[in-house]
Design goal:
Length: 272
């Protein structure tokens, strides 16, 4: 009742939020959505982010045991681990992505998340505290040397969330048919070989209820380093486009992924 009231208030009063979500839905789903379906998805997208905020509070208060999880496809990770592979995870800003890290940490995955400081100090403290409480290691996204050290260590699992802007060093690619900057870290790791990338994402089933889905590792057959990067990026984008199309409100629709950014002219030179 209270959540619905807040969602409806945001939907009515926050024109900018509606505009961003509507733009994202148009790019993801095309023009086939009815007004009723677009409105439903928009409200769900707002509702799911509100749920995330409340769940962050639960995690901060040490209430992890209240969450309920279904898990599918864990065998793909188990098989890679039994082979002795160096494992990294590809995920995205889907469902409660911070909770996914908590689940991995609490289930004894030696997980390391690539992070950057939040703009607000209090927000940064909240996420640093949640990660520490739930056994999530961190790597500063600017520290490439530390990233490569962790990735090459078979006792560590590095999580890449690379569905958002790749900044000036990113690759110029098409995402849902629109040019964007794609983060360069994971493709660079992939081009050096000997890392098994397993797509993993979390899907919201309700408040405090989630499903965690492991998929088959991304297989790259190219040999040349530039070709490996391109094939890896193409297959990662296919993964993102498929799950975002299937569960659009599960993605961070309030993030303006396709707006023009100042570094785009630089990224155009990095087309794969």
């Amino acid at each position: 009742m209270i959540v619905s009231l807040i969602v409806n208030t945001i939907y009515i009063l926050s024109e900018n939020t509606r505009r961003v979500i509507d733009r994202n839905l148009s790019i993801i789903m095309g023009s086939c959505l009815s007004f009723k379906e677009r409105k439903r998805l928009t409200k769900n997208a707002i509702r799911f982010q509100l749920y995330n905020v409340v769940e962050y509070v639960f995690l901060l208060l040490g209430l992890y045991k209240l969450f309920r999880f279904k898990v599918k496809g864990y065998k793909y990770y188990k098989e890679a681990k039994e082979r002795g592979d160096n494992i990294s995870i590809i995920s995205g800003h889907l469902g409660n992505w911070e909770l996914l890290g908590c689940w991995l940490g609490m289930n004894k995955f030696p997980i390391y998340s690539i992070v950057m400081e939040a703009r607000l100090e209090v927000v940064d403290w909240i996420f640093r505290t949640i990660r520490k409480m739930h056994r999530i290691g961190t790597i500063d996204r600017r520290d490439r040397m530390e990233l490569f050290r962790k990735v090459k260590d078979p006792s560590k699992v590095v999580a890449f969330l690379i569905d958002q802007d790749g900044e000036a060093t990113g690759y110029w690619v098409k995402f849902f048919g629109k040019n964007v900057s794609f983060p360069s870290g994971a493709p660079s790791v992939a081009s050096r070989g000997k890392v098994t990338f397993i797509p993993v994402y979390i899907k919201r089933l309700g408040f405090l209820k989630h499903e965690i889905i492991f998929e088959q590792p991304i297989k790259v057959i190219s040999k040349n380093r530039d070709d490996i990067k391109k094939e890896f990026v193409d297959k990662t984008l296919e993964f993102y486009e498929r799950i975002i199309s299937e569960y659009p409100e599960n993605w961070l629709l309030i993030y303006d992924r396709w707006k023009f950014r100042r570094h785009y002219p630089i990224c155009e030179k990095n087309a794969l």
